[in-house]
Amino acid sequence: MKKAIITGITGQDGAYLSQLLLEKGYEVFGTYRRSSSMNFWRIEELGIQDNPNLHLLEYDLNDQTSNIRLIDKVQPDEIYNLAAQSFVGVSFDQPLSTAQTTGIGALHLLEAIRIINPKIKFYQASTSEMFGKVQHVPQTEDTPFYPRSPYGFSKLFAHWATINYRESYDIFGVSGILFNHESPLRGREFVTRKITDAVAKISLKKQSILELGNLDAQRDWGYAKEYVEGMYKMLQYEHAETFVLATNKTFTVRTFVELSFKQIGIDLIWKGTGVDEKGYNKATNELLVAINPNYFRPAEVELLIGDAKKANELLDWVPQTTLDELCSIMVTADLKRNENGFSF
Ligand code: NDP
Ligand code: GDR
């Protein structure tokens, strides 16, 4: 039975990846941080919390003795490093702790692998945020980087650390440069889930207005469940490489808002410009969407669109879910949750 450590099992991707690896017959060791209230709602929603092959281990990525003890105890075949302070907005307010966890955290693991067993395969959760102010469209494994946030430059550190340990010590270190991927398990601080949760609440008369920041930002959004399969495939490939996972389509935040409202039968009409722009129900003229400048970022990533040709060809990884289907999956889940009083 193969053994995998997943750091960040309480997050969106950690939950889906655990489910996938359990289905594939792995023994999964998922790590979580100690906090005053435990936060296992995602693995509970997937119904895997009582699986006998899932072990939950308390752990802090920033404590190197914790990393060494974890790896020494489990002796895993594979480590998926998903733990990070992953919210770009917060990284501007907490740059040092973000750099510590999101950047140096990966180096802690690579060093622990080097010391304990360099045969352990390592997956680093890299990101399209490393492209930042994009130098080339669409972005591939060879596009130059230009990060636009402390989150982005911390991830870039971890990306290059992974490549350097691959080249220096022959560690099977894979960097997966994943574009945005969403699901009903997304945190509500991220724009997609914030929108679908608000649409559900507006539909149920529990909220009146959705406040957002930059509606013009363009993102390449895929479905998280499909992206964790790509992570798994990268570690099964014959060489350690860098791969982009993306849909090769880009849409504005505004389009995501429109598609989400359509799921509950509302067509939006936009009036005004800039921070005065507002979205109304076309049929009733009711105000539904407004801009709140507090949600703007000091530096923005305006346009992301990825080209996953390498993963398509070498890993046979092809995303299937369209943006409309993704909105439908997320709005449906949030309607059900809000009807049942679920608050995550
Ligand atoms: P989430 O924010 O949902 O999950 C992040 C996880 O990291 C949580 O389990 C969190 O624990 C954990 N964590 C944070 N700090 C620490 C720490 N100091 N020690 C141990 N664990 C910690 O992220 P996603 O699941 O969406 O993303 C997974 C990874 O992929 C992240 O590294 C993210 O940056 C990266 N990524 C995500 C993309 C996306 O679109 N989702 C795209 C590209 C990359 P807790 O629950 O306690 O906060
Ligand atoms: P992102 O995701 O920064 O791309 O990082 P997020 O959903 O936070 O923002 C996407 C875009 O939407 C704009 N936006 C808003 N964003 C939020 N969160 N809240 C708002 O109210 C709002 N209004 C507009 C943002 O300015 C931005 O342009 C995600 C994270 O999962 C990272 O960890 C990951 O690496 C990248 O995706 C790929």
* E-strand count: 15
Strand order of the largest sheet: 3-2-1-4-5-6-11
- Please, what is the CATH homologous superfamily of the largest domain? NAD(P)-binding Rossmann-like Domain
Provide a count of the helices. Answer: 11
Which stretches are low in confidence, meaning pLDDT under 50 for 5 or more residues running? Answer: none
Helical residues, percent: 25-40%
Largest sheet: 7 strands, parallel
CATH C-level name of the largest domain? Alpha Beta
Rg, rounded, reads 20 Å
N-to-C span: 34 Å
Number of domains: 2
Proportion of beta-strand residues:
15-25%
Mean pLDDT: 97
What name does the CATH topology of the largest domain carry?
A: Rossmann fold
The secondary-structure element order is EHEHEHEHHEHEEHEEEHEEHEEEHH
Any ligands, ions or cofactors bound here, and which?
A: NADPH dihydro-nicotinamide-adenine-dinucleotide phosphate, guanosine-5'-diphosphate-rhamnose
Going by helix content, strand content and strand pairing, the class is alpha/beta
CATH architecture of the largest domain: 3-Layer(aba) Sandwich
What does this entry show, briefly?
The chain is 40% helix and 18% strand. It is built from eleven helices and 15 strands. The protein has a seven-stranded parallel beta sheet, sandwiched between helices. The protein has a four-stranded mixed beta sheet with strand order 8-15-14-13.
